[in-house]
Fold this sequence. Notes:
Elements: H1 12-27, H2 47-52, H3 58-61, H4 70-80
Amino acid sequence: MRINLSRATFSSIVGIGQKVKKAAKETGNTYIELNRGVNSVVAIDLTEIHKLIDFNSKEFQLYAPNLGLESLRETIAKEYFPTF
Length: 84
């Protein structure tokens, strides 16, 4: 049988999950493994809370006036508008 090696490495989250699993085994404590995914965690029913939130209110739809990061603005201005 021919085997094709992908040379792919697993993500750091999987590595952390392996460390957590080892720590749980060594200590007897229980941990949530990061690489298990959201579906492994009990869902929270937000149906009743959702009804209480007005998503069209100013708090959700309007943002305070903001010029952004000065250093970012200066960098963009120097790059794209050098004579401005």
